[in-house]
Amino acid sequence: MPILAELPRLLAATAVVGGYAGLCLAILLRARHAASLQVPGSGGGGGVVLIAYASQTGFAEQLARDSAQALRSAGVAAELCELGRLDATRLSAVERALFIVSTCGEGDPPDNGALFARRVITSTAALQGLHYGLLALGDSSYTRFCGFGRMLDDWLIGNGARPMFDRIEVDQASDAALCQWQHALGHLAGTADLPDWRAPGFDSWWIRTRTCLNPGSAGAPTFHLELEPADGAPLPLWEAGDLVQVLAPGDPQRPREYSIASIPADGRLHLLVRQQRDASGRLGIASGWLTDAAALDEPIALRLRPHRNFRLGDNHTRPLILIGNGTGLAGLRAHLRARARTGDGRNWLIFGERNAAHDCYYRNELEDWLARDLIVRADFAFSRDQAERLYVQHRLIKAAATVREWVTGGAAIYVCGNAVGMATEVDAALGQILGDEFRDRLLAEGRYRRDVY
Ligand SMILES: Cc1cc2nc3c(=O)[nH]c(=O)nc-3n(C[C@H](O)[C@H](O)[C@H](O)COP(=O)(O)O)c2cc1C
Q1: Domain boundaries in the chain?
Q2: How far is the CA of 181 from the centre of ligand 1 (A)?
Q3: 113 lines ligand 1 (CB under 6 A)
Q4: Any idea what the Cα angle at residue 101 is, between residues 161 and 326, rounded to 5°?
Q5: pLDDT at 3 > cutoff 60
Q6: Is the CB of 57 under 6 A from ligand 1?
Q7: Residue 21 has pLDDT above 70, yes or no
Q8: Does this chain's domain 49-189 share its CATH topology with 310-452?
C-alpha cells in the first residue's frame, strides 16, 4: 500500500500515542508533585527523620532499625528513638517522623511506649509542624487490632500533625503491608531503589536432644530441646534474652516464637517447649512438630530473632530479680547461664509451676546454682501443692521488703512467661510494692523488662 495513502492513519496513531504519553507524564508529574508536597524534604534534602518505635518482642524495633538503615543508605539522616523517651516538647520541634509501633496486651502499648501513652497521649501538643508516617503492627486475631497504633495516629492528627501517607497496618508480619511501608520509605528518601530489608530467611537446624522434663505432671508435657545448625554449619551468635522463630511445615500462620534457654557458649540452642493441644486433642502445629512429629534428623526451619528489650544490656552488672512461670523459665535460664559465665551480680529467682514433684524444670541445675550462690535466693510458687492457689505474685508480695531493698540497691527485674495471669499480676504486685510511679520509671529506664506471651 502506498505510504501517502496511510499518512492520515499514521498521523492519527501518532497523535493518540503522543496524547497517551503526555497523559502518563502529567499523572507522573502530578504524583511526584503531590508526594513532594506531602513529604517535606523528600529526596534526601530535608533534615533528620526521627524514627520512634515501641516494640515488645522486637519486631517493630527491627523494622525501625531497617528503616533507619534504608533511609541512611539513600543519604537521608535518620535518628532512632524509643517512643517512651519522647516527650511533647521534643516532638513539637520535629518536622518529619516515622512511628513504628506494635500493640500488646489487649490493645495496649508495648512496655517501651507505655510512658508515652500515659504521659504524652493523655495531653495535648502543638504538632502543626510535624509530618509523619505510621506503621502499626498487630494481629487481627486480637479484638483490638493495632489498638495502640490507631490510638497514636488519632492523637497525632488530633494535635495538628499531618500524615505523609495513610497509616499502614501489618497483620502478623504480612509481606504486602511491609512492601507498602518500604514503598513509602522510598518516597521519603526520593528513590525507588532502597535495599531489600525483608526478614532473613530460615535456616535448617536439627534437634539433637529432646527430653520430657515433667513426666507424670498434671500439666501438658514440657520438653527440653537442644538444636544445632544442620550439616555442621557454624552456630550463629545470639544473646541471652533473644528468641527464635520456628516455621512448622504446613503452618498456615506465621512463625511461632520461643525464648532461647541457652547461650552460644553452651554450643547448642536450647528451647523449653510445652506441647499444646486444641480442644479436640489435636497437637498444636508448631509445638507438636517440635516435641513429637519432627524426627531428630529432620530439618527444622528456624531463625534467630534479637530481642533487645529482654537482653541484659546496661543491666549486666546489676543484681537481677528473675520472675517467671512455666516455660518462661527458658528466658530466665539463658540469663542465669550468661551470669554463670561472667560472674556479674547477684541473682534472685522467683518461679512458679503446678507441682514441685513434677514441674521443677532443670531442678539439678537450679540446686547447683543455689549451692554455688549464683542464685542467692530462690522462691518457688508451686500452685497446687497446697489447698489455696499460690502464684509468683504472692511470693513477691510476701517478700515485699526484700524486693524494695534489692530494687533501691540497683536491681533490675526480668519477667518471662504468661502475659495474661502471671505478668499482669506481677506488674500489679510490683506497683503495690514499689509504687506505680517508681515501677513505671523502672520500665521506662529498662530496669524492668518483660518477655511475655
Ligand atoms: C501478649 C501479646 C498480646 C498482643 N496483643 C495484641 C492486641 O491487642 N492487638 C493486636 O493487634 N496485636 C496484638 N499482639 C500482636 C503483636 O502486636 C504482633 O505480634 C507484633 O508483630 C509484635 O511486634 P513487636 O515484636 O514489635 O512487639 C499481641 C502479641 C502478644 C505476644
Answers
A1: 49-189, 203-305, 310-452
A2: 18
A3: no
A4: 155
A5: no
A6: yes
A7: no
A8: yes
Can you tell me the distance from the alpha carbon of 449 to that of 250, in angstroms, rounded to the nearest whole number? 34
Residue 436, all three cell numbers: 506505680
Is residue 106 within 6 Å of ligand 1 at its C-beta? Answer: yes
CB half-sphere exposure, 152, CA atoms < 13 A: 36
In terms of CATH architecture, what is 310-452? 3-Layer(aba) Sandwich (3.40)
Ligand 1 atom nearest to CA at 172: 21
Q: Which fold has domain 49-189?
A: Rossmann fold (3.40.50)
- Match 516435641 to its residue by C-alpha cell: 291
Predicted confidence (pLDDT) per residue in 123-162, tens digit = 999 999 999 999 999 999 999 999 999 999 999 999 999 9
Which cell is 220 given? 501438658
How many residues in the chain? Answer: 453
Residue owning the nearest CA to atom 31 of ligand 1:
453
Per-residue model confidence (pLDDT) at position 23: 42
Q: Which CATH number fits domain 203-305: 3.30.2350.10, 2.40.30.10, 2.40.50.140, 3.40.50.11780?
A: 2.40.30.10
Among 79, 101, 199, residue whose Cα is nearest residue 147? 101
User: Quick check: CB of 105 below 6 Å from ligand 1?
Assistant: yes
- The cell for 179 is 512492601
pLDDT band (50, 70, 90) for residue 192: confident
State the pLDDT confidence band at 113, using cuts at 50, 70 and 90. Answer: very high
